[in-house]
Design brief:
22% of the residues lie in helices and 38% in strands. It is built from 2 helices and 7 strands, in the order αβββαββββ.
């Protein structure tokens, strides 16, 4: 049996949307930072793997969480895709304010701006062609306690949950002759279970 999917499989909608969410937030948050003369440094990542460091000011990380497919047809499905937008901030104590209060106020400011941007009707399709996105929804915001806040800099972290309904599609199968039962792959019974083996 030879491979029958001969076309190159394109990037899936959920991959493209994850990239777009990060790009939109990087652009719009930087613009708001300039408009409001916010003094804090800002970096936006996608699927960042290294931990936040207290030397950073504001860090935003966009992560894919899960997808639930529904509304199936022969050529597409609608994916209810959940992304997390994690925002970390740090704050240093000043007269009249603790480091925790400073970090919390900064976190809430950036969470509020991110919510506004992602829920804005100006981005209801995230700048994709009509028909790609069936809807976007900021579902909730959760604040988390960060341990090890004992030194001068305090860290706060919040998570915005963003759901996007994405149409995922593939070409309809045109049908091929599967040939005789002889195949290049056979199923062998092993002590670990049934295993696919290639015939050479």
């Amino acid at each position: 049996m030879a491979a029958i999917i001969t076309e190159i499989i394109p990037q899936q909608g959920f991959e493209l949307v994850g990239e777009r969410i990060g790009a939109v937030l990087a652009l719009e948050l930087a613009n708001q930072k300039a408009l409001q003369s916010l003094p804090d440094g800002l970096e936006v990542f996608r699927e960042r793997i290294t931990p936040y460091d207290k030397s950073e000011d504001v860090m935003v990380n966009v992560l894919l969480n899960n997808i639930t497919f529904s509304n199936f047809t022969e050529s597409n499905a609608e994916g209810g895709t959940v992304y997390y937008v994690d925002i970390y901030t740090t704050g240093i104590a000043s007269p009249g304010k603790t480091g925790g209060q400073t970090a919390a106020a900064l976190l809430q400011r950036y969470l509020g701006m991110a919510r506004y941007i992602l829920q804005s009707t100006k981005y209801k399709t995230l700048d994709f062609a009509p028909g790609t996105i069936a809807g976007t929804y900021v579902e909730n915001i959760q604040i988390y306690d960060i341990e090890d806040n004992q030194d001068a800099a305090n860290v706060k972290m919040g998570r915005l949950t963003f759901r996007v309904r994405i149409y995922e599609g593939q070409n309809l199968w045109e049908g091929v002759d599967m040939g005789p039962l002889a195949t290049m792959v056979k199923l062998q019974e092993t002590e670990k279970g049934y295993k696919y083996e290639l015939n050479n």
